Amino acid sequence: MNALATRLALTLATGSLVGAGFVLAKLLLNAGASQAAIAFVQLAGAAALMLLALGLGRRLPPRDGVHLRYFLASALIGIAAGPLLGNWVLARIPAGVFTVLVTLSPMFTALFNAALDRRWPPAQTLAGTGLGLAGVLLVLVPRAQAVDAEQGLALAVAVGVPMLLAAGNVYRSRRWPAGLAAPAASAGTLALQAALLAPLFLAGLRGAGGAALLPLWPLLAGLVAVTIASQLAGAYLQKRAGAAAYSQIGYVIALTGVAASALLFGEALGALFWPALALVFAGIVLTNRAPAAAPAATMPAAAAAR
């Protein structure tokens, strides 16, 4: 499989898996589990299994200052974007509407990169990002119009999710430590995320959210498995593509959310779904064909350690 085909496959896989994770989180929230409990079990379970596998292969994540700083920064951004802010918003607005805002992450990624590089992204990157955005808006704008006034605050706060996702895309691409393997990067980040959320989880065990977890173990197990798969696919994609190409997973997440909402929550799929899917795929191909910044795996050690 050539480099372009590999990036396309990883983009589709990562976006679909992350989208599936959001849907599973929505199901758990609807079943009465608390946001902190879902996030902790998701992250701690995924981290424990990945660290066990890496330990058996003697490939545990490095624990020097450079790597720990990278893991910590990635963990803080990831917690803020997903388990905390993302789940808070998902508890208050429909899953299909939430994906409207997730699709803004590629646009924010392009803007952040342009600001840091002090130059506009390549024309192909801008065109591909625009095609993907046009595709998802075909099916998501009508859903966004269904949000009532009481959900307006949650929708406004939710803009922070794509901004944080974009910040994470740019940070990981620019600061990936030289020689760090993708599984070790995922495991180290997940472990720190779980440690940071542990106090919130322990505090919430006294409430109904913690008590509601035991009957929901099949959904939780599925969420842990999806998290491991999405983290691995995303880490490999991050090493092989620039931040702009990586951010295209936001469009795949959006369409995955629409399809899953139609299947599980009875939301109409709509006739525009298939044209939207074609536009998103065309945008992903165009963006991955564009000249990109050096992938994380090829960044010099001096740049990664800054």
From TrEMBL:
Keywords, sorted A to Z: Membrane, Transmembrane, Transmembrane helix
One cellular-component annotation, GO: membrane
Transmembrane domains' residue ranges: 35-56, 68-90, 96-116, 123-141, 153-171, 178-204, 216-237, 249-266, 272-290
Chief localisation class: membrane
InterPro entries referenced in this protein's UniProt entry, alphabetically: AA-Vitamin_Transporters, EamA_dom, EmrE-like
Domain EamA: 10-140
Subcellular location, record wording: Membrane
Membrane topology label: Multi-pass membrane protein
Domain of life: Bacteria
Record family assignment: Belongs to the EamA transporter family.
Protein name: EamA-like transporter family protein
Organism this protein belongs to: Vulcaniibacterium tengchongense
